[in-house]
Write a structure and sequence with these properties.
By secondary structure, the protein is mostly beta strands. Strands 3, 4, 5, 6, 7, 8, 10, 12 and 14 form a nine-stranded parallel sheet that branches. The protein is globular, with a radius of gyration of 17 Å.
Amino acid sequence: ARLSLNSSTVLRQGVPLQFVRIATSACTQLAPTQCSRLAIGADVINVKAPPYNAYGDNSHDDTAAIQAAFTAASSTLEKVIVPAGVYKTSDELVPTAGIIIEGEGTSSVITAASTFPSNKDFIRFAPAQTVTGMAVRDLAIIPNGKGRHGIHLDPGGAASFLNVSLERLLIFPTDNGNSIKTKWLAYSEIKGRNNL
């Protein structure tokens, strides 16, 4: 059975809806975590929406807000949206499972606060078991001379990454490391295409 919601959105029985628009007033009737997901679509977390509330204003430290969104998504394998903005971080961000992190191209920038440690990565995937299917796309990482690696695929023990997609990324190299670093390259399938 199919229910057509409008000319571009179709909901099929048993298939999550990918994009839903709801009135702001409807959000006030929901718990904050439900509102943040419904406001932009099912199975999606927006780092700027409640309860995460990242600023993306190149001024506030957005580390805790983005990490909270990554942690919430990691437990349910959702997509994390990083809307246009400049997000200052003071520590590495560590998604722990096969999630999708998606920005709006070079308009979505993760950059270093002045206190960012030189021995930490901007985004570090460090699973204890093999991850099949994950993606980072449409995002810029600008270290401003801080940190170690832009994106670090760092599996523990016998873990590995399968079907990793790194798409349309702009990652400036750091002074201490690489734009993208991976361990166990022989066990990883990395697809990078159309990088910005």
